[in-house]
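User: Please predict structures.

Assistant: First:
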Amino acid sequence: MSKPILCIGSYAENPYHIEKIGRNVYCIEELCYCIVKNAFLLDEESFGSSLFDWIEEECSLVKLSDELRSMYAKKCSMAALAGTILDYVGYNTRKEVDKTEEILRGNAGMDVYQKKLARANFLLKNGRYAMAFREYEFLLANTPSIDRQLRGRIEHNEGVMYARLFLFDKAAKMFLKAYEDSGDKESYYQYLSAVRMDLSNKEYVSFIADNDEAYEASMEIEKRMKEAEDLYASSDENHRLGTLSVYKAEGKMHEYYEQVSEITDKMKQTYRELVKDRVK
């Protein structure tokens, strides 16, 4: 059984908005949770007077806010400020606090472009696609000297996000741009995969027949598709669909529709989470 945690301070009437991660927090423990889970996204702007005022006025933690203001006036690092908050509250483990401070110290040593690239990659990995797109697009628009290899990696990652949102036509365009910029064969494979998902079987076969390079690469795509099908065949998701077929065949319509509803609700919720900031 986990050790109980004694909460401190007041529950805020007015939340604090952490702009870098797009979240509102209502208590100091929730703030600590967000700092630890999103340390890679935070920077110096995340720790300032507005945060200290909220801690004092909304959480009734005057001593903590005074200490933070004193440290801020002495130009202490964001790692030190975050560590002070985490240590004072005692919500997180020592290991989590140390890891968070390490990440924040690393962030401080990056220039703005390195930070944005690191943030974008972190956001992509964690399914925060709209925020990741904004970081990637900033880099593409504001870094004229960006080398073609890096541009290609960014375009490839944007293609990945479009594909995960089932926008296969846009994904194909980004993967093709990535291949043209970087020459990375993997981007070309992903381009063909997106085209295959976007077109009908007849259209795809026609597309491959008219393109010698695509024809050769399509053999690798079909191999990967077969491997993916085999992997899916042994998955829990496929087993559940098999159970649905049994329910329907045996006339157990109540169980059938109950399972269908559960599966579709879960899929809808997952998709809503992916597009809640709507990628444009």
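Second:
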Amino acid sequence: MEKKLIKLAIRGISLSQIQSGIYVLLLEEEGAGRIKLPIIIESLQAQSIASALGKRDPSRSFTHDLFFTFSKIYYINIKAVVIYKLVNGIFFSYILLKKEKEKKEHKIDSKTSDAVALAVRFQAPIYTTKEIFDKAGIYFENGFPLSQEENENYEGSFEKTIPIFFKERTQQELEKMTEKDLNVLLNHAVINECYELAARIKKELDRRE
């Protein structure tokens, strides 16, 4: 397994306030929780993860349940899930498998949402690299409301016009915004748990570095 990995815990799953049918899987460093790692996932995977966490109708079965049953019959266990690469906002993951009584471990590339859905069922740990966590993670401490002094420092920006619920913002709109306004919008996005928008803003800020 790769060095300098950060163990993650599932913080929650929220419905996107921007795009219908899309959810945001929120991961955080286990035992810390100051930084959140938002990952955009589809509805089916969101329901499957929620089901495995015991938050949905247990009578409903998903393909991940079939894989779990199949693996147990043939003594295959998932040792870990690793989110190892981030390219253009897309997270790449692999599943680390090991068959009982065998020493060799196998890596299988997987869609991150599918990998997480299986990790929950196998009670396997989820990891990511420090590089990805530093690049895509959002500091929750930035989500607290600005003080009066900080508001004065932002005089003249569009900060006071930001609504609680955010409209869709294109990449072109984000690119035209100043870094100061992007940071203010990021602050409000985290306050209102609009993690999808926050992730896109963070990506734009990172691009400018």
